[in-house]
Amino acid sequence: MDINDLRRKRKEAAANMSKAAEKLTELEDASDVTDQEAHATALAEAQAAFDAAKAEHAKFDKQVKRAEEIESAEAQAAQSEVDGDEGRQQQGGAPAQAKEPGLRFGAMLRTLAAAGGNPRMAREIAAENGQSGLFASQNVTNSEAGGVLVPEDVATEVIELLRPQAVVMAMGPRFIPMPNGNFTQNRRATGATFSYTGENDDIGVTGYTYGQMKLSAKKMSGIIPISNDLITMASTAADRMVRDDALADAGVHVDRYFLRGSGTDFAPKGLRYQLVGTALETLNILTMTATPTLQKVDNDLGRLELALKNQNVNVSEAHWILSPRTEIYLMNLRDGNGNKAYPEMADGRLRGKPYHVTTEIPDNLGSGGDESEVMLVNPRHVVVGETNGINIAMSSEAAYKDSNGTMQSAFSRDETLMRMILQHDLGLRQLAGLAILTGVTWNPTA
After folding, report:
1. Residues 166 and 23 in one domain
2. What is the extent of the structural domain holding 51?
């Protein structure tokens, strides 16, 4: 129970005390008592009700004051960390680490939202809320594209928290910085040619052939509504909620494009389409065997593993990516004796390898609208290029579309909209590190 819940409980207890006091006073002032015994009983009950309400109020009042003391201590500790960071930076030392990653980001978003995106006003609001150190050492500036550019150290912290929220990033791919927004690397298409030769024979040409992996920063943007009631709460719980909402929404968006983005000048090419148009399209993009049975399902999963093995990819390091429907089907699958075919899925593994589940792998693909896909990828061959910048902008007047596509007004809903922009791209160092099973109709309800 956070501090705001405790305050509400204390307020309710105070209201109960008031009602009990009114009832007790009414009985004490009664002048037309005919049954003294019944009246005495009613007085005792009213007194007991008042005492209970008083005790309840005292309990929550004590808890609120304790929580306020904790918040005050945390605010002082945060200020001390900022002051210590400034001192160490002046002396060339390393800054101290934040107590809870991303919490400073949540506080900054909430405060900037309250300030309408104005950094100077945000500093004043932070000071009024006892968080004067929040922007003390942060170079929060208006960016050229509009909005506010989050400081690099805070942005880096948030990106680290975002990674576990998105399936592809949670697998542990290789992350590379793209300070200039671009990165190009050769990738080996075929290996060297070796042969045995006689004593005086010429050695054959070492036949490497290369392709190229080109990454360019793609702008990912999203709009996150924040309740204005939440914005006014200067509490750790409010900062945590703002932070978590931003990360969860961004994580879903990253999955959508890193998994199935078709690839344009403005959006990443997802894993699903990395092999399309290459020599590996016919080798590593497979189709489910029709009329699935336990043996056919097991064989199809094995075919994906074999596709990686045939390209000398370490399949033991690979990760599965499934839709929720496919996960439930495989968890329910049983042999002829009623035993679960893959009991290890209870521990997050399938055929000895980790698996990840996301709704961004659809279940309505194919001509019949009932197909899904399964991916097997070695994350060591996946590269995510990132810029450390995060740009945010605030508006309490703009409109936005909700999840149903209905236009909503931030003003009429008493919300502030946060637009967050990140830039990154996705590529494969070795295309053979990925295999895909298409046409998957495994369905637990069929």
Report:
1. no
2. 3-28+44-88
Total Cβ atoms within 10 A of residue 323: 22
Q: Which of 198, 188, 194 is nearest to 206 (CA)?
A: 194
Let me know whether 62 and 181 are in one domain: no
CA distance 87 to 76: 16
CATH number for the domain that contains residue 325: 3.30.2320.10
Whether the per-residue pLDDT at 418 is higher than 90: the answer is: no
Q: How many CB atoms are closer than 10 A to CB 141? A: 11
User: Both tokens of residue 29?
Assistant: 């002032």
Contact indicator for 334, 341 with CB cutoff of 8 Å: yes
Same domain, 156 and 20: no
CA distances for 64 relative to 71, 147, 231, 421, angstroms: 10, 37, 20, 38
* pLDDT band for position 234 (cuts 50, 70, 90): low
Please report whether residue 35 resides in a domain.
no
- Find the DSSP H helices in 197-285: 228-231, 236-260, 271-274, 281-284
DSSP-derived secondary structure for 378-413: -GGGEEEEE----EEEEESS-EEE-TTS-EEETTTT
pTM of the model: 0.64
How many structural domains is the chain composed of?
Answer: 2
Which pLDDT score, from 0 to 100, does residue 377 have? Answer: 97
| Residues 365 and 437 both lie in one domain | yes
Each residue's pLDDT tens digit, 373-385: 999 999 999 999 8
CA distance 377 to 311: 13
Residues 153 and 19 in one domain: no
pLDDT at 83: 45
CB atoms within 10 A of CB 205: 8
Residue with tokens 């001390």: 80
| Residue that wins the pLDDT comparison between 357 and 130 | 357
Instruction: Classify residue 369 as left (phi > 0), alpha (psi -120 to 50) or beta.
Output: left
- Tokens 């148009």, residue located: 277
